Amino acid sequence: xxxxxxxxxxxxxxxxxxxxxxxxxxxxxxxxxxxxxxxxxxxxxxxxxxxxxxxxxxxxxxxxxxxxxxxxxxxxxxxxxxxxxxxxxxxxxxxxxxxxxxxxxxxxxxxxxxxxxxxxxxxxxxxxxxxxxxxxxxxxxxxxxxxxxxxxxxxxxxxxxxxxxxxxxxxxxxxxxxxxxxxxx
Length: 185
What we know:
The protein contains 7 helices and 7 strands. By secondary structure, the chain is an alpha/beta fold.
């Protein structure tokens, strides 16, 4: 995992992304707790602050108001930087966020049989489940991350089991410790 800080921040910011059902929120929450970062569940933020403009009935999802969301998050990132705190955010997309916000992008991947079961448990419609399964098979989120950010900060991690999750948190903890050591003045 790469580390490169020219922002003057004392703590890194991390984005956990991946197809719905891969364990983003659980992983991000564990990382935040283990490392002492602020956790931002972007999906919850969108709902709480109504950062949407209508509803797409075909996909059964809100239509995101990116400007409203990014303005809200910009303030949160600035407040954390001012308080010498870092952020771990999780969301199923990454290309909308400014590259300068994140020092590490974790793209969680899950085997399709496990993902299918998770999405079925969530009550996803056949159409929504199929689209998400296809996105995972075609590694859409991994490609999106590599196109949107410096490939040196993008890490693909397996997220099939609790052991995978624990290992991912531990790797991230070690990365953060190294980032802090490399960026302390």
